[in-house]
Amino acid sequence: MSRAEGSSPSITAGDVAAAQKEWSDRLIAIGKTFSDGGDYKAVAQATLDALYGYASGFDVLFKPTKAADKAIRLTEAEAASYFVGDGCCAEDKGFALAPYTAVKWDNKGTIFHGDSATAMGEYYFTDAGGGVTKAEYTFQYARAADGSLKIVVHHSSLPYAPH
To answer: Over the stretch 12-58, which tens digit does the pLDDT of each residue have?
Structure first.
């Protein structure tokens, strides 16, 4: 069975797992580059270009975990500010600079719909001291013209803590 001209293959669970692993690896690389005194801003920009839909012409909705004053980010510059802490939003301290040594994903469910997939679950960030922070996520992926997956919705939050 051949694909129709101009269509792209459906996204699979394996595609989502690979995209999540690449996101983790790149997040860790940003922090390592920062710790090593390298050009972490360039690594972060390459990450945004490779993994998010900005450079592919997609609209992207980005709700970072630790943001309040500018909780919803609609531009690549706002996303970059969150990751490296040098940009449009004064509250940003550079989430990716922690640095993290591991990110474990626990998908609770994924909805597949043709050229998009939406995964929801919990992820666990291990910092350099061995501390682990749990956050909740919803990531939606779309297939770009080149066949790669791009993040078009990134929503992350800390678990509810009743008073």
So the answer is: 999 999 999 999 999 999 999 999 999 999 999 999 999 999 999 99
- Quote the crossing angle between the two packed helices 76-84 and 13-35, to the nearest 10°: 60
- 0.70 surpassed by pTM: yes
Sequence-distant (6+) residues with CB within 8 A of 85 are 92, 93, 94, 95, 97
Q: Please tell me the distance from the alpha carbon of residue 128 to that of residue 134, in angstroms, as a whole number.
A: 15
Mean pLDDT of 94-121: 96
Name the token pair of 76.
Answer: 């690549």
